[in-house]
Fold this sequence. Notes:
Helices cover 30% and strands 20% of the residues. The chain is α/β, with parallel strands linked by helices.
Amino acid sequence: xxxxxxxxxxxxxxxxxxxxxxxxxxxxxxxxxxxxxxxxxxxxxxxxxxxxxxxxxxxxxxxxxxxxxxxxxxxxxxxxxxxxxxxxxxxxxxxxxxxxxxxxxxxxxxxxxxxxxxxxxxxxxxxxxxxxxxxxxxxxxxxxxxxxxxxxxxxxxxxxxxxxxxxxxxxxxxxxxxxxxxxxxxxxxxxxxxxxxxxxxxxxxxxxxxxxxxxxxxxxxxxxxxxxxxxxxxxxxxxxxxxxxxxxxxxxxxxxxxxxxxxxxxxxxxxxxxxxxxxxxxxxxxxxxxxxxxxxx
Length: 297
């Protein structure tokens, strides 16, 4: 989560915070029982308590609907490659890590903690992650850095990232880049490429975010801010622009997933309206997509 995200309107949103929204993937349930030591019968009440605390910090739809228990990284087609590379010593940074769920999935699957790090602007999200996963003895707090990706001093020698700056082999952005318009996404990725990732071919930036079949700037469904929704063509065009601006070249993989549900408990699909339009035809169904960008030069 990042400080450059606009304010949220209509935060009461009872359809997002009902216990009927409770959802946990099989992977998360297995992890909470066998990694965190939580009794199966306590998982629901335990997770609801953590969700309610996180909602008070920032009422994102993904928090209200327990998406932090639906690990996104493991669904990326590159997950097996990522896990292997981390086990071989490469360093991984989860940008906008929130409660650090994807980091715990990596650890549970055998990634060494010494190579895994998280970055978020909200310290309390990190604290709640430790409450949820009960693993401070396994994952020391210095593995999480508290700052904004847009902080000008983040990669200074005495900055928040410290010796991680320029030494990350794999950066992950889950549900992060889609918070911004085109220029904000470009600025964030340029920062990651220029100051956070190693300056070698083979480094990766991957993630998962919301998109739509017709690309463009859309009014966000609940934030008083606009964001850019990509399809494959626009996303790869953005990476071409970034490559030209940074003097780098990237191979970009893009995979659309299914439609998103609106959080009402019904089968209606989440839609967004194109900025500056009131035309029904400018409404687009929101779809998640996974991506992997690998530097080739």
